[in-house]
Amino acid sequence: MFPEIEKISRRDLLNITLNVLKKYGVKPREKLSQNFIIDPEVIKLILDQVPRDSIILEIGTGIGTLTYYLALKAHKVYTVEIDRKLIRVASDVLRDYKNVEIVQGDALKINWPEVDYLVSNLPYHITSPLIIKMIKYGIPNAVITVQLEVGERLLAKAGSESYGRLSIITQCAYIIERLRKVGPESFYPSPEVSSIILKLRCREEKCIEDLELLEKMTNILFRHRNRSIKWVVSKYFGNEFLNYITSKNFNVNARVRDLDLESIVKLINYCIECEVNLQ
């Protein structure tokens, strides 16, 4: 179906994509963030991150382009697609590959298999919940393409404008590596914004075992990212707890946006010590 990745150009891949869409009468659906990869250099970069004979979960099969090349290298590819029309296309495109299992369904709702890698061009509108699910399922490695703005949030450090809940929760579980920026021209149809490819490797030890506590604490804190810790703690946990963390030399005058991961975990542990309920 597709030529060798080393011998195909972006124009070739675009033409193949257009022909497949025309053949099956499929129009890309903006609602589902359907932008199909047409850049062989991007595909090669993704393939280079995945060891041979890996077991892979792909979120968003599309017409099966990336799936096809992953199948040539992987031991097994589970690929999830919510759009029934694209399931029909991908089933035909990938019919000769016995190591590919196509699953029709919502990636947020179905059970995931145990895999070595997750690979996906993550739809913008479900990026955050998908990453949370990755963490909860213990996905050890991932290569994801996300909108540049989301990528900056994932990589952001304390004190920066992009720093927030998603930064903290993801960095608690994963070491995140920036691979490369990807322009709109690498997809069809071209999205309005650039993307970025990130590689995520599971930390040997998460910053905290109970992810729910981290979710609850960051939810409280980042409702008021520009307020002081003193103000937030007093409002939600009371003055007695405020006095306790002050006695522990916790910097209560710092702004929420400046709290690094270690400080947030410390605050959670103080809550546990004092039996403070995180709502």
Structural write-up:
By secondary structure, the protein is of the alpha/beta class. The chain has helices spanning 10-24, 40-49, 65-73, 84-93, 127-137, 148-155, 165-173, 211-221, 229-237, 239-247, 261-273; strands spanning 36-37, 55-59, 76-81, 100-104, 117-121, 141-147, 174-182, 187-188, 195-202. The model has no long low-confidence stretch (mean pLDDT 96). The protein folds into two domains: 5-202, Vaccinia Virus protein VP39 (Rossmann fold, 3-Layer(aba) Sandwich); 211-273, Helicase, Ruva Protein, domain 3 (Orthogonal Bundle). Helix content is 41%, strand content 18%.
Q: Please, what is the average pLDDT?
A: 96
* Percent of residues in helices: 40-55%
The N- to C-terminal Cα distance equals 53 Å
Strand numbers in spatial order across the main sheet:
4-3-2-5-6-9-7
Beta content comes to 15-25%
Give the biggest sheet.
Answer: 7 strands, mixed
Supply the CATH class of the largest domain: Alpha Beta
User: What structural category characterises the helix and strand content?
Assistant: alpha/beta
- By CATH's scheme, which homologous superfamily of the largest domain applies? Vaccinia Virus protein VP39
Could you name the ranges where pLDDT drops below 50 across 5 or more consecutive residues?
A: none
* Rg value: 21 Å
Per the principal axes of the C-alpha atoms, what is the gross shape? elongated
Task: Label the CATH architecture of the largest domain.
Answer: 3-Layer(aba) Sandwich
Total beta-strand segments: 9
Oligomeric state as shown: single chain
CATH fold descriptor of the largest domain: Rossmann fold
Structure annotation, total helices: 11
**What is the succession of H and E elements?**
HEHEHEHEEHEHHEEEHHHH
